[in-house]
């Protein structure tokens, strides 16, 4: 064991953690945790309950980094556990906390009036999802229940959730609609437990709603206790004929969920949203410019629609930057100003990325040979980096799935889809991987 580590009491490490996490995070998660094992570069922390353990696991990379630095032990490995569960249905576990009825911390986000169907541009990429959402908003619980929207980041899932809520309330006054992200569902549950609040109030709040809009359920991956609580909420709502709409940025069947819960999400309709085509991107930009009441020359909008192809948030963001620069400098909006406003983003887009350059960067990073990318080998050491390279090829090049498969030793496009999904899912759970991928992206784009 490292001597310094051994000599350093937990209180001292806690002090370091308190500097690096917010006050409320520290109080919620670390204050009540204790060390249950600390030897041979291994530190095991026991969280107060499984919910908090799940949160810590989610932040493992950051916690490990802080504790390594604080203890001077760069090989320190941190693991998390929770006290043994009580027997029973898993809900008994919280019964002891049900003492006083404290007011529940409000984490429910009010519906955003800016996200409506009126300003949601429909294109081939989202037509089906939009129609399903409208139908649910107009006839809650009578069409698809649950409805699950699935699509990549920044493609309009959250927008549609709010649009459902806004339209449903407009149609039917008094309807109770609740929007919450999965992360806040978990946070709220934890804070009720922590404050000794009444879990019944927490449950009632969710169960007394007519439409539950739950965002980003991929976040529930691997969080067993939160899933369990949500499973009961789901059943309760569904059996009382209440509407549930969820979103996910990975296919629901591929989220690491308890079988029972995954099943529930598959009961209804899964509608996917893909990347918008050029026409749709242009229409979105026109809509946005109109909303902002700014005249933007067509040439500028076309340039943006050609340049930002992956993500509507990025596309809109580019326009917002141009509008801002034009206001600040009091200059007319034209192509020159656009290029100036977007200099950094354009630099990143400028260099065409080839699949070969991705393969090269990935093999360098993982110490493999270029031929491994095309080889049949299936060992983890080769297969995993290969999946990452396929994922990057999809993200950074215009190549189609079959073209990507061909560039990786003639693999089928379903293999490529599988690889992409796998990497996306892993990235959700593993912040280290997300960082590795971010670095690789910078590297192949030549902006590192
Ligand atoms: P997601 O939840 O899928 O990550 P969001 O719903 O947050 O994406 O969308 C990102 C931004 O793009 C939002 O400002 C949203 O209004 C806008 N947006 C996405 N799709 C459309 C669309 N089809 N029409 C208009 N705006 C859109
Ligand atoms: Mg969203």
Number of discrete domains = 4
Average pLDDT taken over every residue? 86
The CATH class of the largest domain, by name, is Alpha Beta
Please provide the count of β strands.
Answer: 8
Strand order of the largest sheet: 5-6-7-4-8
Largest sheet: 5 strands, parallel
Describe the global form: globular
> What is the fold-level CATH name, i.e. the topology of the largest domain?
Rossmann fold
Helical segment count: 22
Return Rg in Å: 24 Å
Estimated share of beta-strand residues: 5-15%
Layout of helices and strands, plus pairs?
Blueprint: H1 3-7, H2 10-20, H3 23-30, E1 34-39, E2 42-46, H4 50-58, H5 60-71, E3 77-81, H6 92-95, H7 127-138, E4 147-151, H8 157-171, E5 177-181, H9 182-194, H10 199-207, E6 211-215, H11 224-239, E7 243-248, H12 259-267, E8 269-273, H13 278-291, H14 298-307, H15 312-329, H16 335-341, H17 343-350, H18 355-366, H19 380-396, H20 401-407, H21 413-429, H22 431-445
Parallel strand pairs: 2-3, 4-7, 4-8, 5-6, 6-7
Antiparallel strand pairs: 1-2
The chain binds adenosine-5'-diphosphate and magnesium ion.
Residues 115, 119-121, 126, 151, 153-159, 284, 287, 312-313, 316 line the site of adenosine-5'-diphosphate.
């Amino acid at each position: 064991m490292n001597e310094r580590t051994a000599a350093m009491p937990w209180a001292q490490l806690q002090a370091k953690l308190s500097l690096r996490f917010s006050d409320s995070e520290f109080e919620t998660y670390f204050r009540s945790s204790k060390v249950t094992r600390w030897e041979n570069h291994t530190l095991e922390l026991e969280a107060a309950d499984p919910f908090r353990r799940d949160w810590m696991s989610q932040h493992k990379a950051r916690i490990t980094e802080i504790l390594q630095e604080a203890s001077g032990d760069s090989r320190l490995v941190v693991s998390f556990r929770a006290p043994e569960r009580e027997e029973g249905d898993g809900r008994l576990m919280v019964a002891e906390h049900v003492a006083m009825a404290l007011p529940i911390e409000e984490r429910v986000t009010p519906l955003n009036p800016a996200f409506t169907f009126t300003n949601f541009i429909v294109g081939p990429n989202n037509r089906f999802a939009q129609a399903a959402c409208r139908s649910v908003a107009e006839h809650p619980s009578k069409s698809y229940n649950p409805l699950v929207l699935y699509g990549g980041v920044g493609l309009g899932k959250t927008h549609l959730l709010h649009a459902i809520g806004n339209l449903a309330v407009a149609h039917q006054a008094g309807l109770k609609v609740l929007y919450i992200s999965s992360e806040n569902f978990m946070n709220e549950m934890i804070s009720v437990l922590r404050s000794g609040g009444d879990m019944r109030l927490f449950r009632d709040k969710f169960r007394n709603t007519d439409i539950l809009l739950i965002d980003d359920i991929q976040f529930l991956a691997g969080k067993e206790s939160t899933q369990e609580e949500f499973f009961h909420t789901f059943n309760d709502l569904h059996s009382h004929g209440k509407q549930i709409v969820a979103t996910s940025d990975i296919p629901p069947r591929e989220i690491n969920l308890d079988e029972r819960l995954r099943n529930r999400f598959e009961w209804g309709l899964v509608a996917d949203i893909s990347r918008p085509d050029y026409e749709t991107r242009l229409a979105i930009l026109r809509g946005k410019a109109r909303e902002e009441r700014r005249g933007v020359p067509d040439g500028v909008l076309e340039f943006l629609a050609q340049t930002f192809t992956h993500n509507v948030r990025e596309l809109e963001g580019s326009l917002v930057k141009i509008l801002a620069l034009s206001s600040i400098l009091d200059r007319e909006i034209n192509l020159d100003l656009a290029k100036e406003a977007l200099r950094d983003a354009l630099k990143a887009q400028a260099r065409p990325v080839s699949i070969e350059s991705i393969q090269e960067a990935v093999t360098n990073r993982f110490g493999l040979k270029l031929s491994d990318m095309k080889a049949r080998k299936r060992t983890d050491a080769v297969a995993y980096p290969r999946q990452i390279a396929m994922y990057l090829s999809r993200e950074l090049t215009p190549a189609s799935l079959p073209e990507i498969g061909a560039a990786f030793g003639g693999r089928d496009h379903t293999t490529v889809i599988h690889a992409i999904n796998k990497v996306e899912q892993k990235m959700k759970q593993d912040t280290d991987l997300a960082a590795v991928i971010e670095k690789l992206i910078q590297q192949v784009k030549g902006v590192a």
